[in-house]
Amino acid sequence: MRGVFLDTLTMKLEELDTSALEKVLDHWDFFESTTPDQTAERIQNADVVITNKVVLDRALIENAPNLKLICVCATGTNNIDLDAAARKNIPVKNVSGYTGSSLAQHTMALLLALATRWHQYAADVKNGRWSQSPIFCRLDYPVMELAGKNLGIIGYGDLGRKVAGLGEALGMNILIAQSSTGEEKPGRVALEKLVSDSDVISLHCPLTAQNSKMVNSEFLAAMKQSAFLINTARGGLVDETALADALKRGVIAGAALDVLAVEPPPADHPLLAQDIPNLIITPHNAWISRESRQRLLDGVVNNIRQWLDA
Q1: 230: helix, strand or coil
Q2: CB of 239 within 8 A of CB of 215?
Q3: pLDDT per residue over 63-110, tens digit each?
Q4: Considering the entire predicted model, what is its pTM?
Q5: Candidate list 234, 240, 293, 295, residue with the active-site label
Q6: Is 32 noted as a catalytic residue in this protein?
Q7: CB within 8 A of 182, min separation 6: which ones?
Q8: Residue 32 and residue 10: Cα distance in Å, rounded?
Q9: Residues 263, 290, 291, 305: which is the catalytic one?
Q10: The D-isomer specific 2-hydroxyacid dehydrogenase NAD-binding domain covers which part of the protein (predicted)?
Q11: Is 284 a catalytic residue?
């Protein structure tokens, strides 16, 4: 059995225990990255292909004669032509649940930065502004005390639940949006009420055709002017031009994002403009703790083992 891992650079394998992966098949080819014009050749003789973000389209799948299993080293499978794989009876296996604690702590780090503005105060200290202060402290940026505030969570799977637990530990009141399926569940509120009542809204739902750009101008206008938006889910959930405009006009008080619709973003992305106030963007690294990446790699190995044993 031959395997190929097409984009190991996305995992920084040198920091991880790869012994189980190396033993699960007879032979592996590891590539740090793979361009579209390299993919066909690299999967040509492979029985098992691991990809994080490299696209496997219909033509590639149909013209890989030995391909028997596709492992996505991520949760999303949007880079795989699932219909083409199904026609050739090739299973496509992903890994879920590996980011939980890492993503939840990153979400809270973004929330605390928005609420305390510590990153701006710390920058002012380095820039000498504290040394120039006429009093013992600085009071330049407003700070929100989170205890007693409403944390609205859209998407209440494992990640949403973990964030809710951390919010409760800070003394926040948790509002959970009703399921997008329309099924009413006890203890949840209608999306419209969550949007209008929340002091912080955190997104943890998958991206679908139905909720693409759900955070649009109308959504933002319905939020409290003092509210924050956090997105550690998928960039496509947010109309990014509308968010940039809302922040510039003070429609909401701030936003923190770990994801954008296009990654890496172009230099002229509307949210990368220098004149947008109280916006924090991190480069899709809520999941990158060593522990999280090890769980992901172990999940891939487990998927291969289960397939071999089937």
Answers
A1: strand
A2: yes
A3: 999 999 999 999 889 899 999 999 999 999 999 989 889 999 999 999
A4: 0.90
A5: 234
A6: no
A7: none
A8: 8
A9: 263
A10: 108-286
A11: yes
